[in-house]
Amino acid sequence: MNQLLNTENVIASFSGHQVLKGISLSVKPNDVVALIGPSGCGKSTFLRCLNRLHEEVTGATVNGRVVLEGQDIYGEGVDPVKIRRKIGMVFQKPNPFPALSIYDNVAAGLKLAGIRRRSVLDEAVETSLRQAALWGEVKDKLKAPGTSLSGGQQQRLCIARALTVRPPVILMDEPTSALDPISTAKIEELIVQLKTAVTVVIVTHNMQQAARISDNTGFFLLGELVEFGATREIFTKPRDRRTEEYITGRFG
Amino acid sequence: MEQLLALPIVRSFLPQGRKEIHLGDRLFYLSLKSLSVLIILSLCALVYLLWGMATPAFAKFGWGFFTTSTWNPVTEAFGSLAFIYGTVVSSLLGLLIATPVSIAVALFLNEVAPRPVGTVLGFMVEMLAAIPSVVFGIWGVFSLAPWVRATLQPAIQSYAGWLPIFQGPPYGVGMFTAGIILAIMITPTISSICREVFRTIPFTVREGALALGGTKWEMMKMAILDSSRSGIFGATVLGLGRAFGETMAVTMVIGNRPQISASLFAPAQTMASIIANEYAEASSDMHHSALAAVGLALFLVSLLFNGGARFVLWRTDRKFRSRA
Amino acid sequence: MNEPLPSFDLQRFDGRRRWKNRLAIVVLTLLTTLAVWPFVSILKYVIERGYPALTWTLFTNLPKPVGEAGGGIANALVGSITMVALASVVGIPAGIFAGAYLSEFGRGKVATTLRFTCDLLVSVPSIIIGLFAYTLIVIPMKGFSAYAGAFAMLMIQVPMVTRTTEEILKLVPQHLREAGLALGIPRWKVILRIVLRGSLSGLTTGVMLALARILGETAPLLFTAFNNRFWSEKLNQPTASLPVLIYTYAISPFDDWHAQAWAAALVLVLFVLLLNVATRLILGRRADIRH
Question: What SS3 class is residue A94?
Fold first, then answer.
């Protein structure tokens, strides 16, 4: 199967007010897909539809199909809790659990699933922190609270936390918009490195970021997926006029 | 410079408390300040007078006042141990019942209940706090106590009646009933503080727990409860402080027997209830003094717990604000 | 990073977790119902047992000796209202102005001490306030009186109104004050005419909450106003009050008195709940000014 994640005509609403107008796209394994567009156009909402977080808001509804590894996550009787293990998420503002240490934060997903064996946890935590390029900085203070790290480190902690349960896909909702340029650069570098292990779908405000790190890009405008294709093509030869106007900075 | 000070705008930027130039303002400010000082002085008067009333008893009985349990107005032998015991045990019992219930209420109203249900139930819990203590008392006498006597106590005794703390005839009134009614009365306090503490947890932390594949309950445990430990602690200490001072409802259901008993079902007496029972008709000056001494002790304990709780909650609040 | 990593079985406890989740939700629901139940039960009892005894004679008659029918709570009603009114004449303005002091001139040692004092007085067990009133008023006057009862109420009312007033007045935006001052209006007029007058609805809610509280307080009245089975001709006599009547009658062995106690409780609860609900309606969904 060449497609890891496939969405078919996803429509999302908040209390009857429609915000997504039928999004269909597909993501290949080990891709980095960037979703760009002006703010308020449904990119984050779409992302939240992919891990069934959108429906947690009162009055929010989703229609359409989202097929992950051959299974429609919105199918009959599918448990959202199980789906979310397969699709990790990193949020705009780093959100480590305030009461937990760095170690416990990274291990949180495993501990929830009932894995208690110290050796297994130790190894998983170290692997995740290495993958998130954070191990060197925290290996001596794993017991420190998660919130004692800097903003950029906290975000990498959240990435490590998401990686620990080995999801095939990780969603990132503007992960660097709250960070300084140096941390941003580190995380962009990290995302490119992570490609070999996971597939990444990243929402970003920053066109240059999308151009730098993604393989495929989707342009959202007013709840519609205007264009979706290889990043190189989107940024050099966009097919839709609206895409071109956005890329060249005419609006947004 | 004087010219400048005449401008009202400049005056409003002066540090507060500086001498006002305009006569009307000066009078106003001074009268308001005097009123405030008067209020402060009245608190000082309270402490001073209470201390004055209590001193004869302390002088006569010394520390024995707090360590003996004989309370005999006729022979003028006064020891308040039984009341301290009654206050502490009934309040702790109330806290034991109220804490899990209050946390459950806070979680339910904040996280589980659909909006309209949450509003209605939340309203009812808060209105519970507005009901006067004496109404709780009359309800306790005619509804709760008979239920304890006829249903609860026999039920508990059929399973655990061999334990000394559960022995004794079913009076209906006693330490246990007082504990239950205290639990009911302090639940609104503890749950409303918990609700506020829970609300300060950013939504994104909750989402983070869900995004990891946590169930709703796991999300509540990990993102909310674990992060609110000090806030919950402050709420319980505040609830305990309130329980210590609760008078009428307790007086009406505790059985009014100044005794220390091993059983939770035995009648007892609290510091507040002995004052309520005996003060109006106290026979002698020493009797009055002894009761005032009990009152002073109650005042100090209540101060300690309320102040301590406020401090803990203030620190918790600061911690969350600095994080946000 | 290219070697296959050892995998875990994340699904193993899924069933148990789902079951625990359901159980937790059920338990939370049950406990909330348990917490709310007394409110429902109290209302039920007060209405069921109080309503039948609500007769015209109840409100107009004095208590009759035990065994005689037709006793009433008139003197207790009047006594409560009298003492609350007496306290409020001093307490409401005092509380509002002290609260204005805190919000308008709020820095400095006096202000901080006042805040601390009010918070303390509000959380002190009310029976201690009664002891204070006894020592200050009953002893010098050599007897129980409405004055003493009113004073005890005052000591509860003033700190409450002070704090709520401060909270409400602090919500008034600073530029309103500055606009007044810039027009050359003296500060005291700005405070009275602009700040206070503009916050009347909020201030009223604070006053109403305090009224509801002091109406229902029993403990401080037990040895200040004490009780009276007849009219109190003057304010320096023992005075009957609704809460004390409820207490005395409820613990008595007479059924007729029990019925009257329930009726009195119904009146009291209705009053208190109405005041609280009115507060809520006025405030809308704005700031919570309690505690």
Answer: coil
